[in-house]
Fold this sequence. Notes:
Blueprint: E1 7-12, H1 19-30, E2 35-42, H2 45-59, E3 64-67, H3 71-74, E4 83-86, H4 91-100, E5 104-107, H5 115-128, E6 132-134, H6 142-153, E7 159-168, E8 178-180, H7 196-211, E9 214-222, E10 227-231, E11 238-244, E12 250-257, E13 262-269, E14 280-286, E15 290-295, E16 309-312, E17 315-317, H8 327-341, H9 350-369, E18 373-374
Parallel strand pairs: 1-2, 1-4, 2-3, 4-5, 5-6, 7-13, 8-10
Antiparallel strand pairs: 7-14, 9-12, 9-18, 10-11, 12-13, 14-15, 15-16, 16-17
Protein name: Gfo/Idh/MocA-like oxidoreductase N-terminal domain-containing protein
GO molecular function: nucleotide binding
Pfam family, one: GFO_IDH_MocA
Amino acid sequence: MPPSKPIRVGFIGLSTSGWAADALAPSLISLKNDYDLVALSTSSEASAAVSAAKYSADVGHPITAYSGDTSKIANDPQHRPRRGLGQDPMHKQLLTPVIEAKKDFFIEWPAGRNLQETQEFAELARKNGVRSIVGLQGRSSRVVAKLKEIIASGNIGAVRSTSIIATLPQEGEFWPPLVHEGMAYTIVESNGATLLSIPIGHILDNFAQIMGDFASVNATSTLFHKTATIIDVKTRQPTGKTLPMTHPDHISVSGVLKSGAFASLFWRSGYKMTPGRRRFLWEIDGDEGSIRVESDHMLGPMMSMFDPAIYVNGEKVEYVEEGTVGGSMHNVTEAWKAFVSGEEGKYPTIDDAVKNHKLLAGIRKSLDEGRVVRFE
């Protein structure tokens, strides 16, 4: 049941630009009857003051600003019922005090830097009796719902195989050869912000919702762009600094699903957005027909953010009502709604993040050991 009063929220890592500012905060603030943003925390006192001024105007009342150690905002008594949000690449350092303060939390995917860290969050959440929601907002997308509906209808018969080709172009400046300075942490594999963990992790979560789980995976990879040229955030020009790339920019995963269907998935990054280069193509083939999902948006492979086109047996399927908000704003808003209503299974939790990380860990094991990895 929804709470009788709006959930009072403290938001860690809320600046005036970026993903949190563009999608997470606006969607949260739009649900005024369900959530009330009352505090925020950033890395510095100056940035916290700027952010607090902006969002105080947005919500119509003063927001308390914190900076530095997240135990300060975690223990703020004005969060009642006890709720907290954590969103930052340094998740363990930032989130642990929130859970220990027994406050429910949101955490952006990939949650922990790896499976072990994500499992630690899940165990700590159970120990402290708190609820969680994870930024795998693609689960709320219209495209996931529509693809499940089409397959369940039997229109294409039993699914026998599926394939994905996805490209993250260099103009995105997330991974080499060009990386803007605010994203330089993505170059170091141990930071947990790799091609595998973020875009592939997102789509594999959506993939599992639609196609079911993998029974086995066999993965290969290579690295073409071994050096990253760092780009100035404001001028978009090279800073003169370069850094070594530490993880693959091409990853191929094949395997058999528990349904018996065969899957072949290929991701690549670093290519220019030249005319005709496909950004995202997903085909699902059944005995009686096929589904094609495609997008030429720069970040088209991110179905959690953008609504691709769907074709069934060559005919386009309209599934986003004209004039309605789609993409990331729709997906995040629906996830917030499901959380406040307590609709278990309707929003992703830290336990769902653990499950997704287990698949990624299996893929990494296959890459490291050069063999097929099977799942129970």
